[in-house]
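for ur thesis appendix - NAD(P)-binding Rossmann-fold containing protein. copy paste whatever u need, i formatted it the way the template wanted (i think)
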Amino acid sequence: MPSYVIVGASRGLGYEWLNSLSKDTSNTVIGIVRSVDKVQAKLDSDSISNVHLLAGDMTDSASLESAARQVSKITSSIDYLIVNGAYTTLATARFNPTEFTTRAAELRKEMIESLDVNVLGVVYSINAFIPLVRQGTAKKITVISTGMADTEAVLRADINGALVYSSMKAATNMIVAKYAVELRDEGIVVLALSPGVINTQEEAVSDEQMKGVMVLMGKLQAGFPGWTGPAPAAESIAAQKKVIEEITLEQSGAFLSHKGNKEWL
Ligand SMILES: NC(=O)c1ccc[n+]([C@@H]2O[C@H](COP(=O)([O-])OP(=O)(O)OC[C@H]3O[C@@H](n4cnc5c(N)ncnc54)[C@H](OP(=O)(O)O)[C@@H]3O)[C@@H](O)[C@H]2O)c1
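the 3d part is after this line
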């Protein structure tokens, strides 16, 4: 009866984690979301049961600690902790680094918002739930990263945009390595995992933002000629789950793709 906690599960891939895991009724599936009522309504309308939702905001360590106390009333341990939530924005993603010369305030604002969720939020999440992971059997912590944080991929595909997202997620990868070193002797595996490219955009995007997305897609296609475009969310989750199940303690701290290697697409 494995237990899973997905932090940042309200929509996109996080929601698909809940959907996918809930299908096996022997799983204990817990989603940490900012707005429980809204997500519960979505689960109900999609006829998804076997999911517990608890309130938690990745920028608020106390809310995550409170969520952990609630988790302990549902299950005595967490086998798989998946820190999925992220601050992502298309607002500044299309700019080259030097274009921030006249946008310093915008850059700082974006960087701090991203830092709060993608860096500090990861530390807060792991620290809040680690006592329950220690009690688990699988003892696996996965932080969702991105191939956009891989230096070689950036150079190969000429990706000069997404400065904030890429650099904050690169910091996330280092956090994973630090936890891996600390927790190795306890048999806890920590992984930074890129999910591939999946279209999870729910809100309308401006023409300028769409242009930026198209430029990025073109670069990915040129840099990785075999790539055929975004994958369905369910496919990504199945691939991620396989990597998480197969990763060993010897590999702890690694930064891998949904293929279990450095092939990001
Ligand atoms: N989609 C892709 O192609 C892709 C590619 C590479 C990596 N990734 C990574 O995969 C993960 C999921 O991506 P996605 O496309 O599903 O993202 P998404 O659609 O933008 O969803 C982001 C999720 O994070 C949650 N979140 C944001 N800030 C939060 C906070 N402070 N506290 C708690 N939850 C918070 C959001 O909840 P709210 O609804 O409350 O905002 C939402 O559930 C992310 O880590 C992303 O960086 C995605």
